[in-house]
Design brief:
four-stranded mixed sheet, alpha+beta, about 15% strand
Length: about 200
Amino acid sequence: MDPVKIVIFLAVFGLLLMIGRTLAASSEVHASQLPRPELQPGSAPAIDDPENDERAKQPVIGAEIDFPIQLPPVTRLGDGQYNRPFVRNYYFSKTDLLRGPADPTSFCDEFFIDLQDPESEHVWTYDYTVATPAGLLQVMNSEKFDSLYLAGNVVVVSRWDLRMVLHTVMDEIMKGYGQPETTRREQPALPEPSKISRWGHKD
């Protein structure tokens, strides 16, 4: 092959290669330029710096995620009452809803659920103690209780299961919610938050 033609071929090839690289660089999109992914259902808001962001130190609450169980739609019954209230929020005193407790088989925490009446729009909060048997035993051992009397609303589960907790709580709430307004308001006094130690007996 003619050496001149080889030189021309290499020169043209090199020129085309440079043009291709220039065009590719101009259309390149870096990771920092990409749009942030949308928040997926049931997930917590993204945290850029978990060590310094205050949100990372706060437990995730129900208003920040999708409701994990299926409830019947809010409907008016034949007597004019509603079948259930709206759920506005739910959260634990210490436990993050997504991460759960450090030990799923041994925990004890206060659970709160904010409800709203569909007709009057009145908002109120129910307070429950949610624990596993091992968690209650841990409380007794740490506080040196020989006995433990649990007053008010208590939910005992075999292990951490947010869906099970919500099912249990909402089933009980909906059982009596269709009753007349005067009956619904005559609820027994609920235990004060984070007062489980007062229910035990020390020697």
